[in-house]
């Protein structure tokens, strides 16, 4: 039976990587786990610390760490995060931070940001100059009718403008 910490490790290990079995975690997800679980606090433990420890515990040419290597990394980070505690006690405290945690989704904030980015282009009340003339009172586009200079190309040849004007003398 996997411990709570192992379950959390697995949930983060498979994040955004459908081919992952959950037994190894990459640097990006390792950092996210440290951030989302409050291991990285920006004071005692920074993103640089997290990257350094990850690279220290992983195998030379590997891009991921196993749960065993992860445990070593957490022991090391616990010494910074919980100063004065033994590595084993620090590890326990880190595992308490990890209990029941899931990767935080970034849907809320970023979607709101993106929604506002389009508003400036779709809010027709802010259109000025010649762009405004292309819109009716409701802010809908008039299409070709909203353009000032419409060329009548219905005649025959270059000098005859407009259909049915062939016989007319200027």
UniProtKB/TrEMBL annotation:
<dbReference type="GO" id="GO:0005874">
    <property type="term" value="C:microtubule"/>
</dbReference>
<keyword id="KW-0963">Cytoplasm</keyword>
<dbReference type="InterPro" id="IPR008907">
    <property type="entry name" value="TPP/p25"/>
</dbReference>
<dbReference type="GO" id="GO:0032273">
    <property type="term" value="P:positive regulation of protein polymerization"/>
</dbReference>
<dbReference type="Pfam" id="PF05517">
    <property type="entry name" value="p25-alpha"/>
</dbReference>
<protein>
    <recommendedName>
        <fullName>EF-hand domain-containing protein</fullName>
    </recommendedName>
</protein>
<dbReference type="GO" id="GO:0015631">
    <property type="term" value="F:tubulin binding"/>
</dbReference>
<feature type="compositionally biased region" description="Basic and acidic residues">
    <location>
        <begin position="133"/>
        <end position="150"/>
    </location>
</feature>
<dbReference type="GO" id="GO:0046785">
    <property type="term" value="P:microtubule polymerization"/>
</dbReference>
<dbReference type="GO" id="GO:0001578">
    <property type="term" value="P:microtubule bundle formation"/>
</dbReference>
<feature type="compositionally biased region" description="Basic and acidic residues">
    <location>
        <begin position="157"/>
        <end position="170"/>
    </location>
</feature>
<dbReference type="GO" id="GO:0005737">
    <property type="term" value="C:cytoplasm"/>
</dbReference>
<dbReference type="InterPro" id="IPR011992">
    <property type="entry name" value="EF-hand-dom_pair"/>
</dbReference>
<feature type="region of interest" description="Disordered">
    <location>
        <begin position="114"/>
        <end position="170"/>
    </location>
</feature>
<feature type="compositionally biased region" description="Polar residues">
    <location>
        <begin position="119"/>
        <end position="131"/>
    </location>
</feature>
<comment type="similarity">
    <text>Belongs to the TPPP family.</text>
</comment>
């Amino acid at each position: 039976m996997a411990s709570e910490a192992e379950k959390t490790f697995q949930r983060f290990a498979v994040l955004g990587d459908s081919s992952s079995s959950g037994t190894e975690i990459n640097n990006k997800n390792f950092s996210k786990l440290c951030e989302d679980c409050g291991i990285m606090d920006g004071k005692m433990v920074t993103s640089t610390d997290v990257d350094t420890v990850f690279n220290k515990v992983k195998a030379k040419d590997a891009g991921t760490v196993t749960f065993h290597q992860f445990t070593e990394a957490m022991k090391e980070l616990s010494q910074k995060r919980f100063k004065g505690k033994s590595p084993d006690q620090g590890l326990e405290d880190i595992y308490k931070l990890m209990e029941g945690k899931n990767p935080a989704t970034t849907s809320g904030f970023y979607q709101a940001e993106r929604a506002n980015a389009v508003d400036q282009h779709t809010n027709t009340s802010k259109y000025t100059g010649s762009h405004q003339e292309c819109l009716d009172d409701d802010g809908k586009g008039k299409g070709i009718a909203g353009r000032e200079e419409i060329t009548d190309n219905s005649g025959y040849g270059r000098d005859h403008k407009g259909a049915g004007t062939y016989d007319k003398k200027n």
